[in-house]
Amino acid sequence: MRIGELAKQSGVSVRALRYYEEQGLLESERTPGGQREYESSAVDRVRFFQTLYSAGLSSRRIAELLPCIDTGGTTKEQQAMLQSEREALAHRMAELQEASARLDEVITASKARSL
Amino acid sequence: MRIGELAKQSGVSVRALRYYEEQGLLESERTPGGQREYESSAVDRVRFFQTLYSAGLSSRRIAELLPCIDTGGTTKEQQAMLQSEREALAHRMAELQEASARLDEVITASKARSL
DNA sequence: GTAGAACCTGACGCTAACGTCAGGTGCAAA
DNA sequence: TTTGCACCTGACGTTAGCGTCAGGTTCTAC
User: Fold this and answer.
1) A110 closest CB neighbour out of B72, B89, B109
2) Which of B68, B89, B106 sits opposite A106 (nearest CB)?
3) pLDDT value at position B106?
């Protein structure tokens, strides 16, 4: 598939896809004319990037994790990297729960006041 | 307290505090000489902002929510705003859990491979 | 009354993740 | 073979949340 189709199926912009390639996240074959050609598996890959992005990971971080993800990351450094990112995620989730709880306080307080 | 002290106690930079004021999040009295003076309650307020920031809320969004937070938000618009923000938070938490699960898959897969 | 730390207001710099031209090329259909 | 849409490569623009001068003032201590 070409880039427009991948963009449609994965729900991101064409510009974003070219950006991912620029950052070393996404590879593509080229047609004789120079246009990008993707395998259908690229759709899942891009969606995976979106998931990681929304979790607060940067392109650089994702690029660092990619070897682990693709090859299964068996070196100590890679496993440590995965672990530390996992812990960072847990930390972020705790922050979110904290924020959520604080918002709930505000909400219930305002409801009580409107009775 | 003055801005340096508030910065120290709340754990953010002086620049950040001035930025919050610029965005309408934080108010301050002024000494006759023009220096900012804060009440001790400002520490908690700033920490609250940090919590919301880390949860992915923008300054603009926080500024919109402030009236609800300070006065208890009783108008329908304000309650709706609180609710929608709460739902957005829940959505973000779900994304985090998804990402976390995906990372766990990678981690357990890599461990299995290294055995 | 003076040194020096802390403060002030601009104002420009920075990074990430794209958006958005501009100017030119590939490709599929009629 | 000529539309005309999709694609290409630069390259500059944008937003948020500050960092970082610069050049000047206030406050506190001695």
Assistant:
1) B72
2) B68
3) 82
Q: What is the mean pLDDT of residues A43-61?
A: 91
Q: Strand C: which residues 33-62 of B lie within 7 A (CB)?
A: 34-36
Helices within chain B (DSSP H only): 3-10, 14-22, 42-54, 59-71, 76-114
- Listed by start position, the domains of chain B span 1-72, 73-115
ipTM of the complex in this document:
0.83
Domain topology for B1-72 = Multidrug-efflux Transporter Regulator; Chain: A; Domain 2 (1.10.1660)
Please tell me if residue B86 touches chain A, with a CB cutoff of 8 Å: yes
- What are residue B110's phi and psi, to 5 degrees? -70, -35
Share of chain A above pLDDT 70, in %: 95
Looking at residue B84, its pLDDT comes to 85
